[in-house]
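Lecture notes, continued. The same structure-token format from the folding unit now serves as the input rather than the output. Read the line below as a description of shape only.
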């Protein structure tokens, strides 16, 4: 899946840049990419600091910071996507970073983490024996 993404994303990005360039011209397309990068860098810094403060606040009050951790992860992923030159990755990056769209994406991240954790957990049989044959209880 990752190999396919690494193959397809650059092709989609180049097609999008060429398409935008045909509509608005080469220099305006370049300027738009630069402005998106600058706006993205500022937004990552702002929302990253905000997520860090929320995470520290949750830890200081002693409550489980699940929402804050998810937001910090989304800001990190979104920032990485914004560092990748192109319009498609920038759009997805902005969706991950903006505070009013992040709650829409958070359940997708939670579902992906949950399925990853469940997939890596050993299957257990009755009597506390795992599939690998290691006894975990009684």
């Amino acid at each position: 899946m990752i190999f396919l993404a690494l193959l397809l994303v650059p092709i989609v990005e180049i097609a999008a840049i060429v398409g935008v360039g045909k509509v608005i011209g080469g220099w305006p397309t370049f300027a738009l990419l630069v402005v998106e990068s600058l706006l993205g860098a500022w937004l990552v810094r702002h929302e990253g600091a905000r997520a860090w403060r929320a995470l520290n606040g949750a830890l200081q009050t002693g409550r489980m910071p699940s929402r804050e951790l998810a937001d910090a992860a989304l800001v990190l992923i979104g920032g990485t996507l914004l560092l990748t030159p192109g319009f498609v990755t920038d759009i997805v990056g902005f969706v991950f970073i903006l505070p009013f769209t992040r709650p829409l994406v958070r359940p997708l991240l939670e579902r992906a983490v949950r399925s990853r954790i469940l997939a890596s957990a050993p299957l257990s049989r009755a009597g506390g024996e795992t599939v690998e044959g290691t006894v975990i209880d009684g």
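Point for the exam: The two ends are 40 Å apart (CA to CA).
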